[in-house]
Structure formats: structure tokens, C-alpha cells
Amino acid sequence: MMSDSGSGVDPSPIQNVSAQYTKIQRQYQQILDRWTPHVLYRWLSTAGLLVVFLLRIVLSQGWYIVCYAHAIYLLNLLLAFLQPKFDPSLNDDLMADEIEEGGEVTSPLPSQRDDEFRPFVRRLPEWQFWLSSTRATIIALLCTTSEVFDVPVYWPILVVYFFTLFALTMRRQIQHMIKYKYVPFDIGRKARYGGAK
Known about the structure:
Layout: H1 13-35, H2 39-60, H3 64-82, H4 88-101, H5 126-143, H6 155-180
């Protein structure tokens, strides 16, 4: 039996599946590319998904483990978003080793006013933070449709433990920011080169 293609051979089912997967992957990437410049709308949509997820948890009075795991994952994403890509505390250890070996010391962050300006580079970029948190929220929402994930727990303990963990990790992060003098946000007015201030 001949097909309409010029080769005379029917494509195998594996090739059909592969072609369909590639087509879906391309369409998914096009959707993500369209969403890239719309930062506010992206985060509002994620916040809406998060509200739907939390309403599902509160109204059904279940899936507290899923909610706790989701909150811990979002906390880890937030911490990666707030941290610099090149950790200055690790550079302190490297500088101490170089001083012992008699090597030259270079600092990744400006230490004086005359040093070159280096912008804050995040360990987790905003786009990846949004994409990961949105995916995690969708997965957590899907987990609430299965009774397998509805493990009975005493939820007040999870809430107290999460807020304790949040307070301790954020305190440590703020102390790190103060010690190494960096701010992970663009605060203030941005001036253009050559323009009036």
C-alpha cells in the first residue's frame, strides 16, 4: 500500500507520536514566548491559580500535606530568587584560601565607591521563578483531585512549622543581605545614560 508522500512508505506510529509531541512542544513554547513581556499579567494569573488552590484546600478541608509541600517549594523558589547567583559568602572562603596561598584577591561585588558597577544577578531569574511557581501550583491543584494525596494530618502543626521555617529562613536571608550589602530589587528611579536626571 502506497501513501501520498513521495517516498512510498507510511510513517511509523512512533514517528507520528514524535511529530505530534514536537508540534505540541512548539505550540507550548510559543504560548510562553507570548507571555514573556507581560510580567504583571503573568503574576496575576499565578496569584489567581493560587487563590483557587487555597479555596480548594479550605472548602474541602483536606489535602493539607499537598498544601504544605507546595508552600515549602514556593519558599525555596523565593529564597533562590532573593539570592545572588554568585554567593559572596563563598567568595569570602575563597579569598581566605587565596590569602593563605599568597594569591591575588578579587571581589565579585564592589567594595568601594570607585569600583565598577555590577548589577544584581539572581540565582533564579524572575521568568524561571514565575514558570516554576505556576507549574507547581497547577500540579498541586491536580493533586487535590485524587484521594491518594489526602493524608490525614493535624494541620495547625504544619501551619506553625511553616511560619517558623519562613521566619528563620527570611531572617537569615536578610542578615546575609545586610552583611554583604546587596538589595535584590530595583528601588528608586532609573536614570538613562546621557539624559537629564
